[in-house]
Amino acid sequence: MTAAILYVVSTPIGNLDDLSPRAVDTLKKVDLIAAEDTRHSGRLMQHFAITTPMLAVHDHNERQRAQVLVQKLAQGQSIALISDAGTPLISDPGYHLVSAVREAGYQVVPVVGPCALIAGLSVSGLATDRFSFYGFLPAKSSGRKQQLQQLKEVTHTQVFYESPHRIVAMIDDIVSVIGAERQLVLARELTKTFETVYGSVAGDVQAWLAADHNQQKGEFVVLLAGAEEQPPQEIGVEEERILSVLLAELPIKKAASITASITGHKKKALYDRALQLQGK
Ligand code: SAM
């Protein structure tokens, strides 16, 4: 094991066989394992007969522990970072540690493996050429709806994490804000005994989930298809006339925004046309 390296090690999201031989080897050979919850990870260590000392690094002590760990790297020790499940830093602690270690000039090496987001995406059947990951949406319905409203027109796949306590409410909010017709996939309990991947239009997923309490249990990745791309609207003669009149008196942004209010045309398209009209 090379000294003075921080290894970021992915651990299983359910099936213990998904811990890679390289991950086991790394966890056995490092001087210290920084773990989100040492008791939780203790079970994994026991299963693989890993006896390396562990130090708790979680959301509440990460900044302070990062300094301690940088000092250990300076003494030539090697460290592995793990979280309770999956890939550290993905809706999990580790960001402050990794940035502090990189800033201090030490190497950070990924020991790759499971991640619920990627596992869900890979089996969803939704477009994967472009996607965004939002982690957990706000816990309160009002905040959640507000964020969903902002995502309504996004044209690529959107991926979320959700807990069993909120999955029903979250899907209800998706139906009410995004609509019942959008394709939606629930990837539940991935790699575990009750793994289920269910995809349909959002209204159907809502009904399916409500009808079966067993399907509301466990861990979820929620994947929402992007909105259909809207063909660009033609700007008509009258719209262009209003835009030109306003442009003579107002800045581009203001002229485009007032023309949009008067005509109902898309502000962005009017703004682009205004730039053309002004030869910019
Ligand atoms: N770092 C982890 C990763 O790489 O996926 C994610 C940690 S985050 C705190 C936990 C959330 O990930 C769960 O609430 C759930 O949304 C999702 N998740 C984790 N394991 C899962 C699984 N086996 N099946 C579906 N979703 C899972």
Descriptive tags:
280 residues; alpha/beta; five-stranded parallel beta sheet; single chain; 11 helices; Methyltransferase, Cobalt-precorrin-4 Transmethylase, Domain 2; binds S-adenosylmethionine
What structural category do the secondary elements indicate? alpha/beta
Classify the helix fraction into a percent range: 40-55%
Distance between the first and last residues' Cα: 58 Å
User: What string gives the helices and strands in order?
Assistant: EHEHEHEHEHEHEHEEHEHHH
CATH architecture of the largest domain: 3-Layer(aba) Sandwich
* Tally of separate domains: 3
> Average pLDDT across residues?
96
- Return residue spans where pLDDT drops below 50 for at least 5 consecutive residues: none
CATH topology of the largest domain: Cobalt-precorrin-4 Transmethylase, domain 1
Estimated share of beta-strand residues? 15-25%
The largest pleated sheet is described as: 5 strands, parallel
What is the number of strand segments? Answer: 10
Walk across the major sheet and give the strand order. 3-2-4-1-5
